[in-house]
Amino acid sequence: MATAQLENLLKHLYSLMPVQGTETLTDAELLRRFTTRGEEVAFAALVRRHGPLVLQVCQRLLHDPNTAEDVFQAAFLILARKANSLRKPEAVGSFLYGVAYRLARRARVEVARQQFHEKHHLVPPPADPLAEVSGRELLALLEDELNRLPSKYRLPLVLCCLQGRTRDEAAGQLGLALRTLQRRLEQGRALLHARLTRRGLTLAMPLLGTLLAPPSSSAALPIRLLTPTVRAAFAFTARSAGVAGLRSARAVALAEGILRTMFVTKLKIAASLMLTLTLLTAGMCTLAARTEPVSEAVVPMQPAHARPPRAAPPAPPVVPAEAVRIIKTDDAIAAGLQWLVRQQKRDGRWRLEGGSQRNDIAATAFVLLPLLGAGQTHKTTDALHPYARAVERGLKFLVGKQGADGAFTSDMYAHALATRAVCEAYGATVDPALKVPAQRAIDFIVKAQDKQGGGWRYAPGQAGDMSSTSYQIRALASARAAGLTVPKETLTRAGKFLDSVVSADGSGYSYTPGNGATPTMTAAGHLCRLELGGKTNDKGLVQWTASLRRLTPLGGKSDLYYYHYVTLALRLRGDDDWDFWEPKIRKILLDKQDQGQKQAADRGSWPTTGEQMAAVGGRLMMTSLALLTLQTCARTDKLPPLPARELKARELAKLYDTLGDKDFVEARRALRTLASSPRYSLPFLSKTLRPVPPLDTPRIERWIADLDADEFVVRQ
């Protein structure tokens, strides 16, 4: 038995040795051998050839070497799965570079979030934060802008600068003339240099060349990575259950995540194209639909000798109650976000109108938080996330109000909200431009803490209260989830403040030390305790959650502020307490949303009638709190497809017109309806959509070139 195992091992090791001839094959030829013949040696040659580049990207963007190796393997797992569908098989290096970059960014965010959710969350800050900013952030900016370059510039830079290919080799691989390749290299370097300069990073061209230098011979691919990666790739391609055991289950999870993202991106691109075409042609096609009668049943025309028409489709299936609840929640969130965006002012701010507070910093942060919670960042560009510009303007307003000390405002409540918004935006996008403002805002919270009591209040240094302290702790939690630096001492002192306001049995929390517990402060206290790593089976927490069951379920006067804290705390705790609470609070929020019967402009918001905090923040604050609470309930929802059904000619025309509606909620619902019944929608769209007039290509190319002009007027 041992002899057979040794023989198999030697055979496998021999298969991974460089085979004469493979080193001279092109990437496309190696891929073809791998996909058509299943040659392990061909894939191994690709790993040897491009492994140093991938490993370099991982090591430059990630702190932990183990995480870097996981990302390295995940990149080649994706190559193995996508080998048959690469658009440019001769440019494997560029494909792997882009995949490794995306994987590394995702891994950075996941590591930060894992650290945040660990029970023992107190992690010491980096030894030298300034060195991290000057070194690692420099590389992150470089990687970011390199990935943004058009492929005609990025491919030559990756081949010649990062992989060390000669210009002759790169020109042959890309099918370019040598002079064309040289010109694109020079233009790519100049464009990269200009973009880095506009990001505030002034680099001499020689230094830029040093940063783009290929891996040295000492940075060659370690042997210990080669064999497991090749074996894992074959198992991953075959979807073998044993792939995780070959190296790392984390690498498999990362690869599957990116593959899902690629698939969803394709769907979003298709949806965006459909929505864009309908927006451009809605008026023309509506007029045509009025003048040209449409047949009663929209189906492809068939010759006379064709088979008889099919029987009418069966009655539409009954949608399960859970699916109805999820769809209703998704529509409610979309309507609420649309109402919030419509309240934005020209300079990017929002205002708390209808309440006693007039703090635009707090109002802007209150709106940005549910937008970010829905995945609407300043970097999203697809048609299903249309609020990127609104988020960008809001973030610019907040950052523009930040002082030299890091404070957005002297009001600690509003500062904490703004800090959370900027930290959440940075955590979701890892945009280097937001890191410094976010860290400075956190540093201000650290300095503003009452060093004796451990809490925060209205102004820096004041003895704390539970309400303001909860805002600051949640801001610190967002910062830690985004990978920012939060001192251990700050969190330890915050825990001591919670000890000073908790009741003797641990079930209640008061506004300030020595006072009686209140429902809202109790919910806030338990939430903060869990944010700071408290145990989910804590005796006081268990006693409090049990008391919620004994009360009349959410009866009496509404208090969205209280509901928000309770929902977050129970979500963190989980267990059957969450199962008890979630359907009840979800139903209350859905039933309470304004449907616009009295004022059409209020549709999608939450009313202030009967709300205890409405006098403070008005309709905008109530809508924000309701959305944040509803998003917490829907965090694990999976939006089901609408059931397929027969769509008559009139309904198809109406749905098509709705795609161009200014109401994004209605346009989105129409798009989902059309997508659910392709048997009827595709023939209609193929008949209705008209060819776009020829484009003025030279003019558009000139516009695109002008986007990189040095003069702002030209770029504008």
> Count of DSSP helices?
30
- Please report the distance between the alpha carbons of the first and last residues: 73 Å
State the CATH architecture of the largest domain. Alpha/alpha barrel
Largest sheet report: none
- The radius of gyration is 29 Å
> How many beta-strand runs?
0
Whole-number count of domains: 4
- Which residues sit in consecutive blocks of at least 5 with pLDDT less than 50? 1-20, 117-134, 204-208, 241-247, 276-307
Please trace the helix and strand order, writing H or E for each element.
HHHHHHHHHHHHHHHHHHHHHHHHHHHHHH
What's the CATH topology name of the largest domain?
A: Glycosyltransferase
**Beta-strand residue fraction:** under 5%
Question: Helical residue percent?
Answer: 55-70%
Query: Mean of the pLDDT scores?
Result: 78
CATH class of the largest domain equals Mainly Alpha
What is the multimeric organization of the chains shown?
single chain
Shape: globular
The secondary structure category is mainly alpha
